[in-house]
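Submission checklist for the structure archive. All mandatory fields must be present; incomplete records are returned to the submitter.

[x] Identifier: Tubulin-folding cofactor D ARM repeats domain-containing protein
[x] Organism: Rhizoctonia solani
[x] Residue count: 865
[x] Sequence attached
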Amino acid sequence: MVEPVVEELKNGIRVVLEQEEVNEQKIPFFPHTVQDLPLAIRFAEQKEDFLSKSESWGLRYVTAMWLSLICMIPFDLARFDEPDVPSESLIANRLDRIGKSYLAYPGIERESAAMLLARLYMRTDMLSRVPNHIDWAVQRIQQGANTFEVIGIMHIAAIMMKAGGAGLVLPCIDRFRGLIEVLGSTDTSTNLLTRNLTKDTIVRKYRIKLIVRLAMCELPGKPRRVNIQNRALVLPVTGVEMENEYMDSEYDEAIPESIEEVIEQLINGVQDQDTAVRYSSAKGIARVASRLPEAFSDEIVDAVAALFSIHGTSVNDNTLDLPPAAEMIWHGACLSYAELARCGMVSASRVKDVVGWICKASHIVRSMEYSASHTNIIQALSFDVRKGAHSVGSSVRDSASYVLWALVRAQSVEILSPYLLEVAVNSINTSLFDREVHVRRAASAAYQEAVGRTGVIPHGIDVLRATDFYAVSIRRNAFLVAAPQVAVFAEYQQPIIEHILKTTLRHWDPKMRILGSQALRVVCDVDLGALGPRVVLELSSRLRSIDTNEVHGALLSIAEISKAFKERGYEDERLQCFKQLSLLPSTTFQKFRGEMIVEASCYLIAESISLTAVNLAPGDNAPDWRYIILDNGLKHQSEAVQTAASAALSVISGFMDCAKEVQAFVQEFQAKNASPVTQSSISQVLGALAYDKFDNGMLDAIDCLVGGLTKSAKPRGLHAHYLLWNSEGYMRLFLQGSETIPSTQEGTLDLGLTSILGLAGKGAEKLKNVERITAAMKVVVDFIALAPTASSASKYVESFLGHRFPRVGADTAEALYLLTQTQDLEESDELEALLLQTTWINIDEQTRGEKAKEVVALLHAVIGE
């Protein structure tokens, strides 16, 4: 084609695609008269070479969509054929050939080709050729069609079943079943790409669609009429609902025997490993159930309920021992429940079972006389199973909220009234304390729907204001702001506390346990005198647990409650919190992840210790705080543990003189074999002691700290090569400014810094990443401040000032100017003037190089080379 014509064609195609992307499909506005059909076909055939190019995907898409529109003209296609032409030249065959040639492409042109072929075979004059098309599809799959072509073939069948209906499908139903069986075969061809089509997610998804649509063609034509009770919102003030039309008609239709197999395949589909397949299967179950009598749909609900019992055996504390693989099954079951409920397929007799599986088992559930199989389980709203370093189950909790949302939309208030409080409480707990934002939002939406549809939720509007979409979007806000606002209502207070104690404080994520302990404090603040001691008593029994997470959560929570006691002046209760620490076995500190226990214990000491606690005799259940702080906290290599121990000892130093401890610290700091970790910990604690209350060996502490900074201090470089580089604080200090690097052995320092300087300065002109160049430049400029490396670093500066990227030169000049201002360099006025007056970002590269040489010469003069 001529180049200008091609460009104009591409521009037109681009406009069409952009219109579809932002608005809707514009193909119906294409010309679609009788005269356009041969024109479009001729273009697709004559420009086949051009259309086959990879960059012509947009043109292929538009061409196929245009043909799919034109082929719907209400005239027999045979009327457009010339007499005595070979069969391959017939209009129908030409359209068929064009469509099939696009099926193997991976892009959207495959979708338009599927639409073309589906519309072609749905024509009344083409219905006789539908069996041949299905036979061709089966043959192509068996011969080794690639996955993209198989997806296109399935797309054609799906469109034909949906738009053609029973009139098109039933005459060829056996052939359609054969196509579905081939797609489900584990060995369809010798082609490695399609030997097992069931491994492809899209293939499995389309296969489920075909199964459902084939079943819909076999079943009675109209869905069973059901009573969707809560479609109308409750009218404000009056509480009157709009009447719903209900048709209590007999539903007595013959059910095909194949439907049982369809249900079995859909039940297997909701257990699939991919969400898309599970969701498609769940929607299919609801659609099939809507065409069946109520007794049959109840059996489907029971079959879905049986999925919850596949994994896990009951254990104590109302939980199930579930493997991570249970997530897929529970998610599929919840989606199926939700779709069934949304379509009104969950009868009143099954609502109790659905709520029993979805809501967390609690004292409210047991009071409703649930069956034994439902009381000793961990339910979908609390599904969170640890898997390695993370957990699975957020999709289950999300879909469980979807179930509650669907139930309150479809069921009447009379049916739901025994369970509404349980639904509300569990929705609120999930919306406040779930780890994932999408789950919190989903639970909030379910609660909002329950409030709006029923109008009988206790304090519904007030609670909804505190737990709306935006309030629960930020986890910290949900835990610490929204939770206490809800806890002021008696119906929610105790369930919130129980959820925090049983779920949040045992969570696998330490951040959740920290937030949970803080949330427990602000919730107990509502009635601290009554709630605080009771919560502490329950938490104290967990300190001997073998589960590190449980012990950690208990320690944090007792510390937070103690903090609340301190703010309110409840000294006796605060002392009891301190005594609880004596229940903690000393071996807990040496367990795996024991640093969390040490840190939390130090935090508890800092919040609960008082003058009375310090003076407790050993026989008064006094915990050994010296062992926790001095032997475990300050000697730990974790900086967080050291900080917590320092804070605890700082509080203690306000109640007693710690001069003896300070003397021991000084001796340990000055020991020849003292490690940098030990010295860092001691330095931190010496700087944190309360010297305004007691002497606490202040002079000894000052002498020790100052002595560690003088030039005469003994070198510590022997440890640098294996300790300092593993310290996050040291690395941060190094990157912020090389001039603050601590001294080390003479010679070793020069060698180490020179090596680092070479890594940062060499090859700057070859780098292409501006951020990387800028980071290297900052290191080089910082090294100018160090006497051993000033001369070498100044030589590298020239390559940065004269860099081909003007921004690098400007940033280097700015960094050098700041260096002259902070390092008190003598006779640097001329250098500063040159750096300021040169417009580094606007001058050409040659001039920038000349200016860079001038700067380096002045820099050498300033540093005294």
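[x] Structure attached
Curator remark: Residues 748-863 form one domain. The chain has 42 helices and four strands.
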